[in-house]
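Before drawing any conclusions, I needed to go through one protein's amino acid sequence and its backbone structure tokens, quoted below without any editing.
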Amino acid sequence: SSNEHKLNFKKSKEVCLSYIQDALLQKQWKRAAEFLTCYIESLEKDYSREHIGPSEMIWRIGTEILWHHSQSSMREFNCFMEQMKTLGVKRYLKVCLEHVFHLLCNGQIDEAYQNLSLAESWRFGEQTAIQDKEMKLIQAYRGLLDYCSWSKQKSILLEQGEDEFSDLAVEQEMHGYFRKAAVNLKEIIKIPGVWDIFVKCYVDLLEFYGDHNEARQVLNEYAYNSKFPANPNAHVYLCQFLKRQGESKKTLIAALKILHDIVPSHELMIDFNTMLQKSKKRKKRRLGLEVIFAALDYAGWKENAKAWSCLARQVKHIVISEKHLDWIKQEWNSRKDWWPAFHFSRYLAKSNWQENKSLSYEKALVAGILLGKDCKYFKYVSHQGCKAQLRRFRMLKKFVNRHNRVCLRI
């Protein structure tokens, strides 16, 4: 009967999809392709009986298979994507975008640009307004490729000699790419969202042509506008821009403080710590100690010799002066239960000594101050340094022994 046929078809379709899913999860691309072929054929046979719209599923699965299948080619992929574009106008621009990404991944920049231009001219009644966001993305990526062309022309111009006619032609072409890129990039970054690459490119264009005020306004808006999602990179770009522009320390410190609150492990924290340590204000020097301690809480910083050098220099200065020992105490109290195993084990002492003696010196100094002369890390490194007759390690051992009373107070 008709109902029985529909139930059997539905069941077989679900089973086929589960086989496809299993093959995808196991990265069995050939097997997945075979099942997808069966799935499509069964739909074609039954399409007259029941209306089913599986185009998005076929698009998603087919794209994944073709991208990974060992025997697929870019020609086949392009053909498949063109077919997917005709299956449903609601997904037309999304399919176009994905097609462009694959073309770019394969280095086919001209083809990608051509596809973006065709998509931008696409119109289909009310669907044009409904897909306004996708259209803005299409325009934004076209702007990104215009930026790449501008950047290429800029490099040619900078590399050329004093051929005035050649320079003029390249400069005119470069300015044409600038105008097209700037228009589209400016539009996309007005919409609340995460637009890192577009913002970076637009700011680069503005800086090259000396429009620093506009660049600053864009970065401030991107970092501080509450309508935009929280994004650490927005603050990084602003800090880097302020640094390039030679902004005052006060302005730069204020921006870096916000970045520290959001991402205490960012690499700019070393610059932040250095700036704070040079300050005459006690409050800022105290913050500097907090910043470097917080950075070293993260595994990615465990072997950062520059960070350990910053901390060693500051704690050494405090121990010698015996002022502000409470600063170190406050930072150490929340870390004394886990830092010894995390940073100062005998295993790490051996490893650091073999790989980087400068790092092991800085860490040993900090370990000796925080844990005293009986610390495993300090004992191993100072012993190896003295054994190797390295003067700075003998000085290190003497320093910690001489100030052991202060270290015990910490």
